[in-house]
Amino acid sequence: FVVLIAAWKTFTRCPMLNASNDRITSAEPEMREDEDLPKSPKTPKNPRSLRTSNGSEIFQPSFVEFEGTKIPFNEYLKKHYEDRQSKCPQFEQKSAQIIIKNLNYTVNTPKEPVIKTVPGYLKYILTLQWIRHRPEMIEKKVLNDISFTMEPGEMTVLIGAPGSGKTSLMDAISKRRKHRGRFGKFSGEILLNGESPNNRTWASEVAYVLQGDSHYPLLTVQETFKFAASLKLPEIYDSKDVDEQVDLITQLLHLTHAKDTIVGNDLIRGISGGELRRVTVGVAWLKHPSFFLVDQPTRGLDSAAALRLGKDLKTLASFGTPVLCSLLQPSAQLFKQFTTVLIITDGQIAYWGPREECQEYFENLGFKCPREYSMSEFLASIVDRPDKFIRDDPERSPAPRPRVTTSQGFIDAWKTSDLKKRMDLRFEKVNKVERKSLDPAYCATHRREESAASNAKPSKFARSRFFQFKMLIWRGLIILRRDWRRFLFRELNDTLVAFFIATFFFRLDNDQSGSRDKVSMLFFALTYLGYSALATIPILFLDKKMLVIQRKAKLMSVSMWLLASMLLQLPYALFNALVFGTFTYWVVGLNGAADRYFFYMLVLFTVYFVGIAISFLSTLSMLTPIIASIFGALLLVLFFTLSGFLAPYNLLPTGWHWGYWSSYYQYALNAVKTNEFMGQTLYCSEGERLPPPGIETERFQGNSVCLYETGEQYLTSFEGFTYFNARWWLWSVIVGFVFFFAILAYVVALCKKRDPLKIFPRSKVVKDVNLGSEDPLRVTNPATLTFKDVVYTVGSKGQEKRLLNGISGVIKPGMFLGLMGASGAGKTTLLDVLARRKTSGKIEGDFRINGKEISDDVFPRYVGYVEQNDLFYAHHTVWEALEFSAKCRLKPETTDQEREAIIQRVLEILGIEELADMLIGQPGQTLRKEQMKKISVAMELVAQPRVLFLDEPTSGLDAIGADTIMEAVANIAKSGTAVVCTIHQPSQRIFLRMTHLLLLLKGGKTAYFGPIGDLAGDLLDYFSTNFQLESREGKNPADFIVENIQQLSPNSQDPKFQKDPEMIWKESPQRKNLEIETEEFLANPPQLEEIKSKHALSWGGQFKVQYRRFLLAYLRDPGQSLFGIFRSVFLGLLAGTIFFNAGHDQEGAQIRLNAIFFLTLTADLAAFTTIISIFQLRPLFYKERSQRYYGSTSWGLAKWWLDLPIVLVESFITFIILYFMIGFEKTAHNFFFFYLVFLGLYIVTTQFAQMFAVLSSDVDNAGFIYTTFLILNVLSSGFLIPRSRIPNWWIWVYWISFQQYTLHPLVLDQYQGVEFFCPNNRGAVAVPVGNSTEFYCPITSGDDIVRTYDLIPDIKWPAIGALYGYYFIFLAVSLIVLKYVTHLKR
C-alpha cells in the first residue's frame, strides 16, 4: 500500500497532467456583436494577402498575442511561413480553388418502409424469404448534376430545406462515404487547383465540421486543441510550433478565457454551447486544410454566439481556405459574413451567385422579400414555399419572367438564367490557371516526399504511428487522472470482492478439503476477473464513438488506438493483481514461496487483460452495449465451462475436446494449480481418510487410505493434466490469447461496414390554420398563470447562488410569451421553475393559476412541457406515440372518436399527417430533427394543456421548419392556450409571431416584461425612450435587443451603455401597470376547472397502455429479442452437450452437481443485460412521470409483467434443451419441480439486476455493484465451499443468499433417494487389505452428496418459498426507489 500511495502521489503531481479544471474569467473586453473585429490602420499590407474574384481583400484580424507580446497578424503569417520554409524549403502558404463538376449521388432504398417485428423476422428466416424474395428497391437521386467553384478565402453559405441534399453534398466532397458500394454511388469530378486529389491524402486537404459536437468531456479546451494539432499538423511542426498553433486558434476563436476549462457534456459541466461549437470548428481547422466544410454550426446557439462563430469562420478563411457552410436559420448579420450563396433543393442547384445579387435575381422571377422577413430568411424559405412571396406587381421587374411555383421551376429558371452563364465562366477561368500559381507545393512531411519519389503510397496520416500512440497515451492519462472517482470506485469494488473471497476461504489447510477449496477459490477468482473486465463495455462504447469520428478524420490508425486503449487499462490491471492478488493469496493461505506469489499475480494480471481484449472485441463487433455484453458474456461462459473445473477433460464428450484446448481459462486454471500444488505435501485430517471410520469394518478391517498425499498426486487426479513444471509455458499461452483477441478486434474494426445513407420522408408544410369555435383543440376552460417575486437559489461550492432574482409576471390565455436574454441569464431555469420541473435548489415566490395555488401533484395536468431534447419510445409509430399521450393525459370521459379527432387535428396543424405510420426510431434513424421536434410538440398538444411551455422549440431546425413549428404554436395560443417558450436565435418573422417578451439579464433579473407590439413597436419604443437605442431599418429586433442588452451596465466603459436596465425596469410605468394588472386579476379571477387526481387514467388504465407499449417494443426489436432467444438456445446446447448423459456412476454424481451450479450462473449472466435496458428507458420514464402520464408503480409492474413471460420463455428454452440431454431424473415430479426452481432463479436475478439499475446513478456503478453482490451470493451458495466449512462470520450470508435457495432444493430434488454405483470399480478408491486390495465406492446414494454439502433434507418447499419471496422483496424495493428516488437533477 505504501508503493500504491507513492505511485498515486507521483501520478497526481505529473505536470503534464495537472491542468486546472477551474474556469478562468476572460480579461478581454466584450466586443459588440454587430461590429466587425477592429483593423489596425498601421498594419502593413501583407504581400501574401488574398483577394476574392471581385478584388476585395479577405477579412483578417489585427493582432495575435504570444507570451504577452502583441504581433500584427500579417507579420505573424509572414514569419510563420518563413519558419516553415527554413525547415522544409518546399513549404509555402496553402491556398486552394475547388471545382465541383457534375456531381451525382444515387442510392437504392426500399420502395416501402417496413416495420420489423419478431414474428415477421422469424417467418422471413424460417420460410427462406431472404433467399427467394428480396425487398423491392427503387433508385433515388440524392444529388443531381451539382457544379460550382470556390476561390481561396471565399465564404459560401449553403442553404436548403431538410432533405434537400446539403449534408450529402458535404459527405460527397469530403469523401466520407465510399463513392461506389451497395448503398449507392457517386459520379462527377472534384478538383483541387485543377487536379484530381489523391484519395489517400484527401482527408488532410479537407476539414469537415459535422453537425454534432463530439469531444472527450474531461479534456480542457487547450488539451483538446493540442491533441488534434499534434496529430493533424505535419512533422515539420515541433512541439513548440504545435503549442503556438494551439495558442493561435484559441485567440482566433476567442476562447482564451476558457482554454483551461474542461469541455464537458450533458452530465459534466463545462464550456457553453457557443464555445463548444467553436472548439469543434477549431479542431477541424488545425490541420490547415485546403477546403473547409461546416455543416450547420449555429444549431442551438443564440444570435450573438452564432454571429461570433460566423466571424470566426471568416477569420479562418483569411488563411486562404475556401469555406462552405450550411446554415438553418441565419440572421441578417450572420448572412452578411458570406460572399456567395448556394441554394439547393431536391439535390439540384436553384441559385449560385454573389450574395448582393440574390434579391435582384428573385425579384426578376417575380418574388419580393416581405418586410417581416430578412433576406437570409427569405432565401431559406423561397424555394420550398414560393406561395408566400409572389409579388403583386411583377410588371415592375426589369425582365419579366413566368412565375414559378415549384422547386423544379426554380431549378429550371436557374439553368436558363444569365447569372448562371456568368458564373459558369469561373470554370473556364480556373481550368486555364496553372497549378503552380494557385497551389504552391508545401511539404506535408519528409516521409511523404520520399514515398512519392519512390512511387509508394503516401501515408493517410500526418504523423507516424508511434507518435499517434504517444499522444493517445498522453490523452488517456489525463482522462484517467480527471476521472479518478471512477477508478477509485472500481478498485474499491474489486478490493471488496477480494475481501469476500479471501475471508470465505480463510486460511485453508493442505488437507483434502482445503485442497479442493483452494481450487474452487482459484477458479472463482479467475472467473470474477474475466467478468469484471466486461463491465467496461458501456464505457468503451463512448470511446468507440470518438474512434469512428477521429478515424474518418485520419487522426489515427485503429491499431494505435486499440494498443493505447488496452495499455491504459494497466492501472486497473496492476491494482487488481496487487490488491486482489495479495488479499486472495495470503489471507487464503496459498503457497508461501515468493516466486509463487508473484507468478500468481502475473496470471491474474494476464487473465484480466484477456477479458479486456474480449471487451474490445465485443464493443467493436456489436451495435449496442446490450448485445455486446451478451456476446462477451457468452464467450466467457464457453471458456470457463471448458476450463476443466466443472467438466473434467476425461468426462467431456469427444466433440468438445477442441474447446478444452481452446479455452484460455483452462490454461490459466492449470497455471495457478501448478503454481500452488507442485512440491506441496498434503495430508488427511480427521474423517478424510477413505473409507471413513465405521464403514464396512469387516471388509476393510480398519484399513483406510489418504487419497492425495502430494500436490503432484492431486494434480494427476484432474484427467488431462500434463503440465508439471510447465507453468511459464501455460502463462505464455494466456498471453497469446491476449494478442489473439486484440488482433481479432482490430480485424473486426477494419472490416466494419459503413452505415447506409438514410433517406428521410419529407413532412408536408401546411398553410396557416385557423382554429374555429368547434375545433377539438380549442381550450374551453382557459387558465392564467401569475408568478410574483420568483427567486431560485442553488448551492455552489458551499455558498448559495441566486439564478433567478425577484421575477414577476402574468401569462394570460392567448398570450405567446418569449423568454429571451444572453447566455447565462436564466431562461431555461425560469421556464423549469414556472413549469415546476426543478428537482433541486430552493424556489421562492407565489405561483397561481386563476388565483388558486395548485399543488405539485396536479399542476402538470394543467400544463404541457416540450423539452429541448426529443425523447420518445423508439418502437412507437407517430400515431401510436400521440395516442399514448392522449390516453394517459386527456380526461377519462374522452371518447375514442374525440381522441382520434384531436390527434388528427394536431397532425394536420403540424403538417405531419404523412408520418403517422412511420416508426419513430432512435434520433437520426428514421426521422429528421425537424420532424422529431414536431412530434415533441404534438405529444403535448394532444393533451390540451391550458399553459404550454417550450424549451428552445426551434433549436436545430431550418428556417422553414422553425417557422412551421412557431406558426402552429401561435395558432395554439390563439385558441386560448397560454404559451411560454425560450428561444435563442429567432428570425424576425418568428419573433413577431410572439405577443409578449420577458427579457432577462445575467443573474436572472428582469429587463423588460410586456407586449412586443406591431412590428415590435412597443418593445423598440421602450428601448428608445429609456436607453436612447435606435434599431436601424431592416435589422431583426430580436437581434437588436439581445446584442444591446449585453452591453448595458452601470460599469460599462462606453457612456452610451452606462445604464442599469434592472433599475430602469423597476421604475418604469410598464412595471407599475403590470403590478396593477396582476392585482386586479387576482382580486376577481375566473373559475378554474378543478382537477383532483394526480393522473387522468386509473391505475389499471396506466398499466394496460404501458404493457401494450412494452410488448410492442419487444416485438419490434427483433435484433435484441432474437439475440435473447439465441442466448437461451446457446446456453441450453452448451450445457446439454458438455454435461451430456450424466449417468449414475461416480463421475455422473459430480457432473450433475456441476451442471446445476452452471445453470445458476447462466441465470445470473442473462440478468446482467437488464441493467443496460433499464438505463436506456430511464430518461423517458423520468420525463413522462413528471408530466403525469402515469405513476411509478404502474410503470414498474408493467415492465415486470412483460419481463415475466419473456423470462419464462427464455428459461424454458434453456431448460427443455438441457434437462433431458444431461440426463436428470425423468419423473414428472422431478421435471416440474426443477423447472419451478429454475424459473424462480431467472425471475429473481432479473429483478435483482433491475433493483440495482434503479438504485444507481449511472450504468457503470450499477454493473459493478450488481456484480459485487452477485459474487457474494455465489460464494455463499454452498457449492464452492460447503456450509460446514463457511467461516462463522459469514454464515449469516449463507442463510440470506437466494443462490443457496436455488442450489439447495435442486440438489435435493436430483439426489435424494437416487442410487449411484462404481461400475467395474471405475471411480472407486483402492484400499490395501493385507495382501489384497478392496475397492471402496465413495458415493452409493444421493444422500451422500446431501451430507457432504451439509444440506437440510426437508427444506425443498420452504426454499422455493424463500426464493420467490426474494423476488417480491426486490420488486418492492425497486418500486419504492422508482417512486421516491430521482437521479435526474434539474
Describe the protein's topology.
Elements: H1 2-13, E1 63-66, E2 69-72, H2 73-87, E3 98-110, H3 118-126, H4 129-132, E4 137-150, E5 155-159, H5 166-174, E6 180-181, E7 184-192, H6 202-205, E8 206-209, H7 221-232, H8 239-252, H9 273-285, E9 291-295, H10 303-317, E10 323-326, H11 332-335, E11 340-345, E12 348-354, H12 358-364, H13 375-382, H14 407-415, H15 418-432, H16 435-438, H17 446-453, H18 465-482, H19 484-504, H20 512-534, H21 537-552, H22 558-567, H23 570-587, H24 594-621, H25 625-641, H26 657-662, H27 664-677, H28 697-700, H29 711-716, H30 727-751, E13 785-796, E14 799-811, E15 816-821, H31 827-834, E16 842-849, E17 863-866, H32 878-889, H33 896-910, H34 929-941, E18 947-951, H35 959-974, E19 978-982, H36 988-993, E20 996-1001, E21 1005-1011, H37 1017-1027, H38 1037-1045, H39 1061-1066, H40 1069-1083, H41 1099-1115, H42 1118-1138, H43 1146-1186, H44 1192-1222, H45 1228-1255, H46 1259-1275, H47 1291-1296, H48 1300-1311, E22 1325-1329, E23 1332-1336, H49 1342-1348, H50 1356-1380
Parallel strand pairs: 5-10, 5-11, 8-9, 9-10, 15-19, 15-20, 17-18, 18-19
Antiparallel strand pairs: 1-2, 3-4, 3-7, 6-7, 11-12, 13-14, 13-16, 20-21, 22-23
Describe the protein in words.
Residues 1-59, 393-402, 431-455 and 755-773 have low confidence and may be disordered. Helix 10 (303-317) links the parallel strand 9 and strand 10. Helix 20 runs antiparallel to helix 25, helix 27 runs antiparallel to helix 30 and helix 43 packs antiparallel against helix 48 (1300-1311). The protein is globular and about 120 Å long. The protein has 50 helices and 23 strands. The strands form six sheets. Strands 8-9-10-5-11-12 form a six-stranded mixed β-sheet, sandwiched between helices. A six-stranded mixed β-sheet has the order 17-18-19-15-20-21, with helices on both faces. With 1386 residues, it is an alpha/beta fold. It starts with a helix and ends in a 6-residue tail after the last helix.
